[in-house]
Design a protein that fits this description.
Layout: E1 4-8, H1 12-24, E2 29-33, H2 37-45, E3 51-52, H3 56-60, E4 65-68, H4 72-82, E5 92-95, H5 101-112, E6 116-122, E7 143-147, H6 154-163, E8 170-173, H7 176-207, H8 210-214, H9 217-222, H10 230-239, H11 241-263, H12 267-283
The structure holds nicotinamide-adenine-dinucleotide.
Length: about 280
């Protein structure tokens, strides 16, 4: 492919997507915008983008592909702005956000103007941020969820997949609603639990300093994700509220059951709790 790609938000995800697109389509011109000037300059110096644009409006004018890789709140705001800008009629707009319900609603304005919006979520990342953390291979073999709404043409979905081919990710199409349920179960809710475990350890460490010293190995492994950006995770929770409240209710019920099993010293019940979890865990790919 050749043409112009405008990447808005040149952090870990936007930077890594730019690198993957440039690698697969060397002819393409990648125009980057970041509200943090220093980060945009870094992206240019590192060769992640070909040119910087002083404003979103100037950057998107000639774009064949527009990628929004900013926090989800900002994505909604920028989509509303794009709806008032001059875009090429056949350009594709996509995002990289971790939730899809509200962004898809916001994108209705673009669809009404005949502009194709296809939500996207590359399911790889890290707790690092900024252009300096971007990596060409970040998405290799990871799932990349695409959440086109009904009116989106197959040809446009394929065009987006070709643009993103250099990610070497596995694309999966899901509805925006299913996306938010799936990621709620396997990513967002576990994140709350990881942070909750760390907060519990912190609480006990105030009275018992050995807690911090001993919190190595397994504890560090299962709580690694608690080091991620609080801003990003605040937004994710607020954008996936309904799903997360339901999961939280189910979890509380489950924990009450486990508590009752322990209180009743129910050996069989406790064994069964761990055995059922082990069986499902062992079957995971
Ligand atoms: P990041 O902090 O590394 O990068 C975000 C960049 O966006 C920053 O450079 C910031 O300056 C810029 N930015 C913020 N608001 C802006 C605006 N209004 N206009 C222009 N630039 C703006 O974050 P990231 O990890 O790259 O996350 C970007 C998106 O990708 C988020 O929506 C996140 O939910 C999603 N995502 C993150 C991960 C992950 O593990 N980090 C994985 C998949 C998807």
């Amino acid at each position: 492919m050749n043409g112009n790609v405008c990447v808005i938000g040149l952090g870990l995800i936007g930077g890594s997507l730019s690198m993957a697109i440039k690698h697969e389509h060397p002819e393409v011109n990648i125009i980057g915008y970041d509200r943090d000037d220093n980060n945009a300059h870094l992206a240019k110096i590192l060769g992640i983008i070909d040119e910087m644009t002083p404003s979103i409006e100037m950057g998107v004018q000639e774009a064949d592909l527009i990628i929004l890789a900013v926090p989800v709140n900002e994505t909604e705001r920028i989509i509303a702005e794009l709806a008032n800008m001059n875009l090429k009629q056949d350009c594709i707009v996509t995002d990289a956000g971790s939730t899809k319900g509200s962004v898809t609603k916001a994108a209705k304005k673009l669809l009404d103007m005949g502009i194709t919006f296809i939500g996207g979520h590359p399911m790889a990342g890290s707790h690092k941020s900024g252009a300096g953390a971007a990596k060409l291979q970040l998405f290799e073999n990871a799932f990349y969820l695409l959440t086109p709404t009904e009116e989106i043409l197959d040809a446009d979905i394929n065009r987006l997949k070709i643009w993103l081919k250099g990610t070497k990710a596995n694309f999966l199409l899901v509805t925006p609603e299913n996306h938010d349920l799936l990621t709620g179960v396997i990513s967002h809710f576990p994140h709350i639990i990881a942070s909750g475990l760390v907060k519990q350890a912190e609480h006990y460490s105030e009275r018992n300093p050995l807690v911090s010293r001993l919190a190595a190995g397994g504890f560090r492994d299962i709580t690694r994700i608690a080091s991620s950006s609080p801003e990003m995770w605040r937004d994710i929770l607020l954008h996936n509220k309904t799903v997360l409240i339901e999961l939280m209710d189910n979890w509380i019920d489950e924990m009450v059951q486990v508590k009752d099993l322990i209180a009743a010293a129910d050996r069989v019940g406790i064994y069964q709790f761990f055995q059922e979890a082990k069986e499902f865990r062992d079957e995971l790919p």
